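User: Please run a holo structure prediction.
Assistant: Happy to. Please share the sequence and the ligand.
User: Here you go; the ligand is zinc ion.
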Amino acid sequence: MNDPIRRVNDSDIESRLRPDMRLECRICWHVYDPAEGDEMEQIAPGTPFADLPDHWRCPQCDAEKGMFLLIEDDGDL
Ligand SMILES: [Zn+2]
C-alpha cells in the first residue's frame, strides 16, 4: 500500500514518515502522537505529523517541526 503522503519538505524524516508514526521533540522530549493530535494548536486527532501546518511548533518548547525525531518502534505490530 502506498501512502498518499509524498511531500518532501526541508527535513528528510518526512519522506520516511508513516501516518501513524509518533515523533519526539529532541529538546524537551514532547511526543507528538497522531492518534491524539494537538489540542493546543487545534490539530484534530488522526492528523499525521507530515500533515501538520508548517507553522506548527512543539507545544512545550516551541521547537520547529525539524527538531522532531522519529520514534521507530517496529517491534511489536
Ligand atoms: Zn519540545
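The CA atoms of residues 4 and 46 lie 15 Å apart.
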